[in-house]
Structures are given as C-alpha cells and as structure tokens.
Specification:
Layout lengths: L5 H11 L2 H13 L8 H4 L4 H27 L3 H15 L20 E2 L2 E2 H4 L1 H7 L3 H10 L5 H8 L4 H10 L6 H14 L1 H8 L3
Antiparallel strand pairs: 1-2
GO cellular component, one term: canonical inflammasome complex
Subcellular location: Inflammasome
InterPro entries: CARD (IPR001315), CARD8/ASC/NALP1_CARD (IPR033516), DAPIN (IPR004020), DEATH-like_dom_sf (IPR011029), NLRP_Inflammasome (IPR051249)
C-alpha cells in the first residue's frame, strides 16, 4: 500500500535500507552541521520508525524530506533518492496533501516558492540562459544522489550549458519538490550572485 503521508514515506524508505546503508544514513544525520542539529541520544539504538519520528519532529515533514534526500546522497543511495522523490511527488499531486509548512524554505532559509511555484520552475528560462558553470553543479547532483551515473554522463557530454540545463529540467527536476530543493541549494553554493539577483525579483 502506498504511504499516505511524508512521514510514512520516510519510514518506508528507512525500513527498506540495508543495515549498512541505514547506519550510514544515521551517521550522516549526526554529522550534519546545519541547525537544527540532531543529538546522538535521539539516534543511537533507534529503529526506522523512531528515526522517521526524529526527522519530522526536528525538521517538519517538508524539511525532513529535503534532509533525507541530502543524507541518502551522502550515503550513495541514489536509487533510494529516486524512489523517495517519486513517492513524495505523488503525495504532493494529491488534493489536500500539499505541505502545510509552505512556502518551502531552501537550504539557506530562502523562500523557494512564490504563488505555489518553486523558484527553480519560476526562473527556468533565466537559469537556463545564465547558469554558466554546469559541470560542478552536475558533480554535486551526482554526489547527492539526485542524478544517476548514466544520466550524469549523458548530460555532461552535451556541448553547452544551456543544453545541459534543459536536459536537467526534462529529467531529474521533474521528480518533485525534494530534487528541486537540492538543486536550489547547489545553485546557491555555485551561482550565489545569480540567485541573489533573481531573488530580488521575487
């Protein structure tokens, strides 16, 4: 049965991880330096249901999904990232299941939605035209599990930044809000002045 809430989706994802990957996920959760922080006593010896509770109680449902995607990427669980964002996208598309915590906050606490439209979607044309250093962005998307190796190799081989960006929009950025939030965070890290300029137009 498909999960009805994001918390249930997170619990299902954690339950399906191997013991090794679950341990890596928890280790990366404890290693996060961004606030709010998770304490060791909240994680050690806990099962998948308890960890899902910790994620949601610490970050809210919307934030917990974003953090889970980040941690899965750190643990090299790319397949699990794809499955999770697909499930979350399905929940977001159902009436009455949109995040009550919206507008969504990006990794730096910046509002990533406007009139129910994500920053990445709202400024698609501007980002496609103006993002110039795509290779480090693709590297980060691969590292965080948003891009799979085959898609990464295909996009990296394209001749221009504009074509690479269009391919991202046709692929992994269609998976849902979680993948867009990760992409937005990476843009902040690699194209800060461009993002700041676009944010002034919100």
């Amino acid at each position: 049965m498909a999960p009805k809430t994001k918390k249930a989706a997170l619990a299902d994802m954690l339950e399906n991880l191997s013991k090794s990957d679950f341990d890596k996920f928890c280790s990366h959760l404890l290693d996060r330096r961004e606030e709010p922080r998770v304490r060791r006593r909240q994680v050690e010896g806990k099962n998948f249901l308890q960890i899902a509770d910790v994620l949601v109680s610490t970050f809210t449902e919307a934030g917990a999904v974003k953090v889970a995607v980040e941690l899965l990427g750190c643990a090299n669980c790319g397949q699990e990232v794809e499955e999770l964002v697909t499930v979350i996208a399905g929940l977001d598309s159902k009436p009455g299941t949109r995040d009550t915590a919206r507008p969504s906050a990006g990794a730096a606490g910046v509002d990533t939605t406007s009139d129910d439209q994500h920053f990445v979607d709202k400024y698609k044309l501007q980002l496609t035209d103006r993002v110039s250093h795509m290779d480090p962005i693709l590297d980060r998307l691969l590292d965080r599990g948003v891009l799979q190796r085959e898609a990464y190799d295909t996009i990296r081989a394209l001749p221009t930044s504009q074509k690479k960006m269009r391919e991202l929009y046709c692929g992994c950025l269609k998976a849902g809000t979680a993948s867009k939030d990760v992409f937005y965070q990476i843009l902040l890290e690699n194209e800060k002045f461009l993002i700041d300029d676009l944010n002034t137009k919100h």
